[in-house]
Design brief:
Blueprint: H1 2-24, E1 26-32, H2 38-54, E2 58-64, H3 67-80, E3 86-90, H4 94-99, E4 103-104, E5 121-124, E6 127-131, E7 134-135, E8 138-143, H5 144-150, H6 163-176, E9 181-184, H7 193-205, H8 225-239, H9 250-255, E10 262-268, H10 272-278, E11 282-285, E12 296-298, E13 301-306, H11 312-322, H12 325-335, E14 338-339, H13 342-345, H14 358-367, E15 368-370, H15 377-392, H16 397-414
Parallel strand pairs: 1-2, 9-10, 12-15
Antiparallel strand pairs: 3-13, 4-13, 5-6, 6-13, 7-14, 8-10, 8-11
Helix pairs in contact: 2-12, 7-8, 15-16
Length: 421
């Protein structure tokens, strides 16, 4: 009996010590945008479990939201003073949240992110506010057989198609009669897709959403000669029947290229794995150059810290832990996005040298450009989306872009320049 009591007592002491260590961990709350994505959630929960088990000071707990309602939830919580410690933030939205006082700069070892793709680092006012475990890239999908059948040169990063070559490719596809449309742009998705996917075409024409030197006006940037040339080109895609307009069935972007309805598709790397499974000879081409360079959008979801976080040292510790290559590679293998570092890419199935999606890493490294880094982007992006949808539906490009400039400039003035001098 005494032996049993001694064992029981020893077990109790061990249990109490373990429980005490667990109870000593301070809770660090986190919000995430990926509710409903089981694979993504499993990877994130695995990182959290690893972090919580790796040390005795902090215990991260996560609450996930649907992506469609996430940003509104953060803004409402900020106004109510109920933000968590760790925030998930879409890269182009971050400057607005930082300027609004929702976020604080990161305090992490910056040597840990020196090899990260530029689009994965969220900078505002010369400080690092957020860092992403992945980036995304857009490419022009087509088939090797389509290029051969239409007699088209295969463009490369070093020698992309010119604007004239791109339009000749669309005309050849249209004239062949083999496709419902030459090009799918995903016009049904009138959210962040429009500025992410279509601003690069404006940049390539020499225009911009806003003056990127001052960020205090869109005058001349969105309605100057270069932007007007873009607007007229954009209108021609729909007037001349190269691409379906805003009434496109959402299912078409999922299956239209796969089933052969489109010769070309402007789409992201997140659709690449599913497409490769169905199309043996799919190839991913770089953006065309309309005269001022060839670009794609950069910047995706990132981790940052709320300004009201009571334990920023714990939040920073988690972010430093989460940006290890093994976790960047896990997210890439799990959800198909681009790992943030070259070393993590080499650990992945798709993005390692010679891998089927390695070209997307190169596109992100060489072509990616951040959307306007300004708090005003949250308004400017919506104005741009509305303008492009209107032009696609037949509105006059010049009048539409002039009206967009007026709306953007009025918002900038109403917000005292958003902190730009």
């Amino acid at each position: 009996m005494k032996t049993i009591n001694r064992i029981t007592a020893g077990a109790f002491v061990a249990y109490a010590a373990t429980t005490g260590a667990a109870m000593a961990q301070t809770d660090v709350s986190m919000w995430y945008h990926g509710a409903g994505n089981e694979v993504e959630s499993n990877i994130l929960n695995g990182i959290i479990d690893d972090f919580n088990a790796s040390q005795g000071d902090w215990s991260v707990t996560v609450e996930s939201f649907p992506q469609q309602s996430y940003n509104d939830s953060v803004v409402a919580a900020a106004l109510a003073g109920n933000l968590p410690c760790i925030l998930d933030v879409d890269g182009p939205i971050m400057p607005n949240w930082a300027w609004s006082g929702y976020m604080q700069p990161l305090d992490i070892d910056e040597s840990l992110v020196e090899d990260f793709l530029p689009g994965t680092l969220g900078m505002w006012d010369d400080e690092l506010y957020s860092v992403g475990l992945w980036d995304a890239a857009v490419a022009l999908y087509t088939r090797e057989s389509t290029l051969e059948d239409l007699g088209l040169r295969r463009p490369t990063l070093e020698e992309p198609w010119t604007g004239e070559e791109f339009m000749a490719a669309l005309e050849a596809a249209k004239a062949s009669g083999d496709y419902d449309y030459a090009l799918d742009l995903g016009m049904n998705d009138q959210g962040e897709w429009y500025p992410y996917a279509f601003l690069p075409f404006l940049w390539s024409h020499g225009g911009s959403l806003v003056d990127r030197d001052s960020y205090t006006t869109a005058e001349g940037a969105l309605n100057g000669d270069a932007a007007l040339a873009f607007g007229e080109w954009w209108a021609s895609l729909f007037e001349e029947g190269y691409a379906p307009g805003t009434s496109e069935d959402p299912a078409d972007q999922q299956t239209g290229f796969i089933d052969g309805s489109f010769a070309f598709q402007w789409n992201g790397n997140w659709r690449a794995v599913a497409t490769m499974a169905e199309v043996d000879d799919v190839v991913f081409l770089p953006a065309p150059d309309f005269g001022a360079g060839n670009y794609i959008g950069g910047g995706s979801w990132q981790f940052g810290i709320s300004a009201s976080c009571e334990h920023p040292e714990g939040a920073n510790a988690f972010i430093e832990f989460a940006i290890q290559d093994e976790y960047l590679a896990a997210f890439s293998d799990g959800i198909g996005l681009i790992p943030s570092t070259p070393s993590a890419a080499q650990m992945t199935e798709n993005y390692a040298e010679g891998g089927p999606l390695a070209s997307f890493f190169d596109l992100s490294a060489d072509q990616a450009r951040l959307r306007p880094v300004t708090p005003g982007y949250v308004v400017q992006s919506k104005v741009f989306t509305s303008a492009l949808a209107d032009i696609a539906n037949g509105a006059d490009p010049a009048d539409t872009l002039d009206a967009a400039v007026d709306e953007i400039d009025s918002d900038i003035e109403a917000n005292q320049g958003y902190g730009h001098e």
